[in-house]
């Protein structure tokens, strides 16, 4: 219990004691209706010494780290980066971990990725391109270090978005390179899951690799990697929507017309966590022929895709408790506003929404595209 309290104090800057039990957090949470312990109830239960009741209920895993509660808490308590990971750490130490999450964490520790894939295959996506993407090992320095992160490097669908981004960079004649087999998980989900020792270890190993090479900045299309690199590693990093925005004048001159009604999903770790709302919208709106419509819940009120904070590895817990997953609600919202394309800013959104489209029967009516995929399509003429 002492260790938990110390961790709570450390991660919330001692603000954990300032909860006024207003209930804003539970009312804002996409899982508020399903969980036995909303953040408000968690704090109350901790105060009453009922921590084991929370852990046994599995409520600590019913959170996809969407940051909504934290952004709305009147006492400014770090719920997402503090209370939840502290409880998860205790749960991990007691061996109370959902199996698929445990497997993902072990794989990240052993292989540097959650898929149990060989690090040697990390640049497999680049070998599928018809041009060479150089590695830093070979090139030593480049203006841009392109970092696909684990999903963007290995996941069958996500790596299409990585290839699109690399193609856009090639068209823009950007001097870029990748780490290839030297790259490993940056660990944002690991941290949010309460595996702090593994996060520190990943950060140390990654920093050793980053320090070996010269680059001006990193570009990534993974919003969690962006968050970790910016706020924990302290590196110069651009989300790819910012990179595209920085090159917008050049891109505009090359865009062809598309014929889509597009809505844009604000990823939690771009929007609520890092305040990036306008750049992706400006890029999308600048493509001729694109009709832009907003989700009813947009910007700081956007609904989570359900993948964050290890949510993508918590399917068994979600299935047990949750009747309608947030991604399913989200694709129905896209249908309501008349979109035929959902444009995403984080690679993890893509499999979440594509799965939700199948579950809701909207597959075929709506498609999901990463913003780099949309831009590439406009460059290549539709
Ligand atoms: S929103 Fe903040 S102050 Fe209100 S109950 Fe939740 S944690 Fe406590
Ligand atoms: S971060 Fe999101 S999912 Fe987690 S408790 Fe807060 S509102 Fe709920």
Account of the protein in words:
It is a single chain. It is globular and about 60 Å long. It has three domains: 2-96, no CATH class; 100-245, no CATH class; 247-380, Rossmann fold. Helices cover 48% and strands 9% of the residues. Helix 1 (2-11) runs antiparallel to helix 6, helix 11 (158-171) packs across helix 21 and helix 19 packs across helix 20 (349-360). It has a four-stranded parallel beta sheet with strand order 2-1-3-4, with helices on both faces. It contains 21 helices and eight strands. The model has no long low-confidence stretch (mean pLDDT 97). By secondary structure, the chain is an alpha/beta fold. One iron/sulfur cluster binds at residues 28-31, 39, 63-69, 79-80, 84.
In percent terms, what proportion of residues is strand? 5-15%
Determine the mean pLDDT: 97
What is the N-to-C order of secondary-structure elements (H for helix, E for strand)? HHHHHHHHHEHHEHHEHEHHEHEHHEHEH
Structural class: alpha/beta
Radius of gyration: 21 Å
- N→C terminal distance: 58 Å
> Largest sheet at a glance?
4 strands, parallel
Per the principal axes of the C-alpha atoms, what is the gross shape? globular
Q: Order of strands side by side in the largest beta sheet?
A: 2-1-3-4
Q: Note the total helix count.
A: 21
